């Protein structure tokens, strides 16, 4: 006998919506995205869902399963409670376009607000040298697949649209942290203080290190422990550095 699952899927658009219930066949080893595809093939051909790789690498199938932000293609049916309806909803922090598809352009706007790597002026490409431990440290952050599950789950913006203008979210604070700890980044020489911008422009102070972002990251990046907390510590160190304090008082900026 083939197993059946009950799916409660949010259907609607920016004007409103409702839950629709479906009975869908389940086969051994399947993930939630397999059942969503079966649903489209058999009962709901107009159901909108975004996906691409079905391998946890493109970051496009983000949605909420039983209220938790997850990748549809990496959530095994066997990991969900059997004999209970499975609720699938669009990401809550972003505007709905249709059904399970949301407008994630907030994240692209925030990405553009973080100035990129500034190459050292005295070195040419090919002359850059880094310690392996510095490479390893940023390698972790480079695993990000930009699924924006961390952005969706962060309570600073999840139910607080009003905070979005001032807060970049964990994914982009992590980007600031990565650049700030990059040994070759020449931001300071170029007059850019990444620690100050983290606090003043990207909203680092809103983060109260709850670690919810880390818990939902499908790449198991330790966003809070390895990026946000060290960045907060460097911001505090800089603020209470007596030389920085004196420099600010007399209108100088220390090159640190
Ligand atoms: S640790 Fe900070 S960025 Fe991450 S979810 Fe909590 S408040 Fe948001
Ligand atoms: S840090 Fe993790 S949860 Fe956030 S966008 Fe990147 S991969 Fe997704
Ligand atoms: S379809 Fe690419 S991450 Fe799920």
From TrEMBL:
Which InterPro entries does this entry report, sorted A to Z? 2Fe-2S_ferredoxin-like_sf, 2Fe-2S_ferredoxin-type, 2Fe2S_fd_BS, 4Fe4S_Fe-S-bd, Beta-grasp_dom_sf, Helical_ferredxn, SDH/FRD_Iron-Sulfur, Succ_DH/fum_Rdtase_Fe-S
Report the PROSITE patterns cross-referenced here. Answer: 2FE2S_FER_1, 2FE2S_FER_2
**Keywords, comma-separated and alphabetical:** 2Fe-2S, 4Fe-4S, Iron, Iron-sulfur, Metal-binding, Oxidoreductase
Q: Name one Pfam family in it.
A: Fer2_3
The entry's cellular-component GO terms read: plasma membrane
The coenzyme or cofactor needed here is: [2Fe-2S] cluster; [3Fe-4S] cluster; [4Fe-4S] cluster
Drop me one GO molecular function for this one. electron transfer activity
- Which pathway? Carbohydrate metabolism; tricarboxylic acid cycle
Q: Name one GO biological process term.
A: tricarboxylic acid cycle
The 2Fe-2S ferredoxin-type domain sits at: 5-92
Entries under SUPFAM superfamilies matching the protein: 2Fe-2S ferredoxin-like, alpha-helical ferredoxin
Q: Name residues in a coiled coil.
A: none
The entry sums up its family as follows: Belongs to the succinate dehydrogenase/fumarate reductase iron-sulfur protein family.
Q: Which NCBIfam families match?
A: dhsB, PRK12386.1
Name assigned to this protein? Succinate dehydrogenase subunit B
Q: What is the lineage of its organism?
A: Bacteria, Bacillati, Actinomycetota, Actinomycetes, Kitasatosporales
